[in-house]
Amino acid sequence: MMNSSIKKFSGLKFILFFVFLHFSFIFLTFIFLRYRIISPAPLFVYGMLLFFGGFWLTRKKNRAVVFALYYGVFSQLPAIFLSLMILIGILTGASYSLTVFETFDFLLQVWHTTLASLFPFLPPLRWLGTPLYYWFTVFFSFIYPFIIVLGAVSGQFSKELNAINH
Description:
The chain is mostly helical. The protein has one domain. Helix content is 74%, strand content 2%. The chain has a two-stranded antiparallel ribbon. Helix 1 packs across helix 3 (65-75). It is globular. The two termini are 33 Å apart. The mean pLDDT is 83.
């Protein structure tokens, strides 16, 4: 019983670590956006840290890959919630008539500030009358957790290879 509660607390610490990491990279992105040449660096480092977090979770902590999905989803829950609300608003047409969706848009764009360094490199295309960069902010809410899962899968694969070799 005690071991189970420790693991639950450890999972909460891991989720909070990912949330803290995310907010740290929001602030780092603000600093790096002034330097156009290296502005994508925080996004790249953030993605690598997410991948390594998933890798470490399965390789060193001996957790199942599904835990990486849980941790990734719960660490990105605010963005996932906002993205789902925005997608529902767009599909139902409510986003054009209700001003609350402007708040959702703003909060989602702040949450995904780390993507801002990619926006100048995107083509000026529109889909459903909305710029491409906006769709990036919506869909990256679901991509970040899978970066953690990819790291976890590679950690599991590495652990199994190590077991076969020994």
